[in-house]
Amino acid sequence: MVKSSPAACVEPGLLGPRRLTGSEAVVIVIIICLGAVLATVAGMNIPAVLQLLAGAGTVAALVVAMVTRAPQQGLRRALSALLGPPA
Length: 87
Fold this sequence. Notes:
single chain, mainly alpha
């Protein structure tokens, strides 16, 4: 019987989930703090804060996609999902 090494069953290039970098973690913490400040200091209700943050995130994603010249089909699919009729 042929013995195989333990690493023989692992595909090269198949990596686990990627960890966040420091700058990505800082952005997430700032967004969470901004939501908390809007809810407590500005007196906004939670659904309004979530709508504001979701809208800002959507606009940011679309701007990044346009600046990086994302494929047109993906951009069209994202816009149709956002502007289409609710499911």
